[in-house]
């Protein structure tokens, strides 16, 4: 038998260096992982840990410490005792579950750190890391990027395609794939079929989901309704995520941000920039993605007194104006130019959105530009109506 492979241990300094490189956002997660010889999921995890712990650096205040709250301390000890009892109960139940089954519980994309997942599931971390590495052989990265490119192009044209139809499409294109792989890739890209069906929109289970407020409501003025969404953009080596805030009345892009990972921080940054530059809307609409249902995002809207609206599950047209924006961005810019890296993409998108807002005429605006309609408050509008349970958009399609 061969000698067992020793698990590679990374120092805190190394994790910080790689994580900060990801936070900078100059390179994709794939490029950073290849540069430092680590798994892409680890890069994303270290970036997330840095962002989550950054605020703690400034929490320490000078001066005398406040008096200890004994009642709060007692509640804390009570909570610890309850959690320990539940943890002991869970461990007893784990005895009848096979190792392979428990290995299946561990998900590198989950918010809970991988090391803690392994501890709770009672599986060895070294085995998990080896399996993750085995799933991504050297040539698999390029193959996954190619599949992502094909999925992205087809989804842009047919956003109602779920994983089943996407498997059929890829096999017709000569790619041998199974549904599980397509589901994984679509999940990493933040894509889900729009047609009603199971698990088409997955919110965080502990986040509040707000009702949809815009069905049958006429949008008659700028800053009445804003909405947002995230889309996947392919690059030569890796991919990026784009978020934008759009004004429904004028279709103007009020703010946008680019990131190499799909976390909430760049969405919050985009929202705050739009509020800072354009005031506040009466209603803000989004899908039920965990970035938009997170407290970090919704607390900003609550602070500004903005009504929160979220798309219904499987409602293809609830956020149709942002979906049309993504189609235009990809077909009119990204697919044509084939950006190589994050820096090129950043410059190219800045130029495109300037053109989109100030120069590109829109059919639904009477061939006026979004910037002129937003400024004048004349010539725009939108209405999503509900007839016999199916959504329709009253405004003509943007061209």
Automatic annotation (TrEMBL):
**GO biological process: one example:** DNA integration
Report the superkingdom from the record.
Bacteria
Give GO terms: molecular function aspect only: sequence-specific DNA binding
Signal peptide coordinates: none
| Annotated ranges, domain Integrase catalytic | 218-378
Q: Which Pfam families match?
A: HTH_21 (PF13276), rve (PF00665)
Protein name, per record: IS3 family transposase
Record organism: Massilia cavernae
